[in-house]
Amino acid sequence: MIDVQDVVKSYGGRRVVDRVSFRAEDGLVTGFVGPNGAGKSTVLRMAAQITRADEGRVLVDGEPFGQAPLPARRLGIFLSAETLPDRMTGIGFLRYAARSQGVPVARAAELIGLVGLEGAESKRIASYSLGMRQRLGIAVAMLCEPSNLVLDEPINGLDPDAIRWLRGFVTGVARAGNAVLLSSHHMAELGLVADRVVMLDRGRVVRTGSLDEFVTVGQRRCYIEALDLDAAVAALRAEGVRAEPSRQGVLAFDIEPERAGAIVYRAGGTLRHLSSETPSLEDSYFASLGAAEATGEQR
Ligand SMILES: Nc1ncnc2c1ncn2[C@@H]1O[C@H](COP(=O)(O)OP(=O)(O)OP(=O)(O)O)[C@@H](O)[C@H]1O
């Protein structure tokens, strides 16, 4: 488990992480989201002890990860694909990493298979695409079969094939009982892999919860198709319901579909389709951000 406890970080007198606390539990994928500059990478770097917290601490399985007898077994870290050594081959780098951690070099070939780099292992890293570099970076993080895994923006630059691979990979690591903490801007993808979501905005946690809890923040809404859409929108608005044209129909917010349908019907509309819509993680993300901004403006 990764336990972030009340961490604070300032740069040049500006607080970029402001009393952040949350947990990434064993057996779950925790998605870490927030706008650019929210402080996600800084928190992950504090977990990896690359950045020192001004206040607070991050415990990994109950202690700062650097204090564990074999730190790389405690926490696997992927922060960037840019720092890999271009002149080495993929397999060469993994063998080097294995030797430096006292792991049998045979693990290097296993890792190539684990991250799907077969066929490219003997090529220089300089020739790797971004997606291949991401896979190699994740392989390094997995070197010592860590019980916790931190991945900063691992989805960036991946093609659809690699995204599908990553989805299966992180889910598999979590289902084996490990904690996975993963930052990303790809809401649709995160909606497929995350069990829990932690949202940061301007250095503060603005929302945490299971994926199901998180998506209920998006507006409750329903989708209506009627013969005269303009009349349907007007009828709903006349009843004080927020209604907006969408696709071939109308989205009505914070209303049960039955009531929305009744309003349109009473106004003489002919209904063709009526359904309730589940908000996506992206909808909820923007709804939470809007709420956080409104509170922030009052601060
Ligand atoms: N070493 C540093 N020196 C000065 N400022 C920094 C440093 N590292 C981060 N910051 C600042 O801290 C803030 C938070 O940055 P951070 O990279 O943690 O955000 P993020 O949520 O990961 O953003 P993104 O989604 O764009 O990666 C930013 O304003 C950034 O400019």
TrEMBL record:
PROSITE patterns, sorted: ABC_TRANSPORTER_1 (PS00211), ABC_TRANSPORTER_2 (PS50893)
GO molecular function: ATP binding; ATP hydrolysis activity
Taxonomy, superkingdom: Bacteria
Any Pfam family matching the protein: ABC_tran
Alphabetically ordered keywords of this record: ATP-binding, Nucleotide-binding, Transport
All copies of domain ABC transporter, residue ranges: 2-227
Family: Belongs to the ABC transporter superfamily.
PANTHER family: ABC TRANSPORTER, ATP-BINDING PROTEIN (PTHR43335)
Protein name: ATP-binding cassette domain-containing protein
Species this protein is from: Mycetocola reblochoni
The organism's taxonomic lineage, starting at the top: Bacteria, Bacillati, Actinomycetota, Actinomycetes, Micrococcales
